[in-house]
Amino acid sequence: MVRTFLVASALTLTAAAGSPTTAAAADAGGLVSALASQLGVTKPQAEGGAGAMLNLAKQRMAPDQFGQVESQVPGIGGLMGSRSGGQGGGGGLADMAAGALGGLGGGSGGGGAAGGLGALAPLAGSFSSLGLSPDMAAKFLPVMLQYLNSSGGGGAAGLLKGALAG
Which residues form the signal peptide (predicted)? Predict the structure, then answer.
């Protein structure tokens, strides 16, 4: 009886250790918390800024690549202004940021404020609409990548870096 219990316990622990969903798994809520705490922004600003960055990355990635990011970081659709319901709170700012990003399609407007952002220049309007200076976009990216790398989303981090670090 004891032997059966020990074998069953060992198998359960082995199965749990090999499980792809561990306590350290990356998710949208953890990403927002990391951004808010490390950058001193509000939760809605963190949600909107991350959403704008993810929308830009999605525009620059092949659909299958972004699908990999979505599968490694559950909940990012809600940050991107997804209209599928989700958590509700903060969706307005995420939608506003996504809309501002969409309006920046390719013109040369905005020049001065976005000048030093390089590949992140299209985010200047989105970040301004959130009450953040445009240069905060450059501060969001390393925090996002660090969070994903430390939370088991290294593949997603590599794909985002490729799309956003230009």
Answer: 1-25
Predicted pLDDT at 38: 97
Average pLDDT, the chain: 74
In 10 A of CB 71, how many CB atoms? Answer: 13
In the prediction, which pLDDT does 31 show? 94
User: What's the rounded Cα separation, in Å, for the pair 37 and 46?
Assistant: 9
The number of helices, as runs of H, and strands, as runs of E, in the chain is 10, 0
Retrieve residue 118's tokens. Answer: 């390089």
Query: Phi then psi for 94, rounded to 5 degrees?
Result: -65, -40
Q: Max CA-CA distance within the chain?
A: 75
What is the token pair recorded at 119? 């590949």
Name the token pair of 127.
């970040």
Whether the per-residue pLDDT at 148 is higher than 80: the answer is: yes
- DSSP H or E segment with residue 121: none
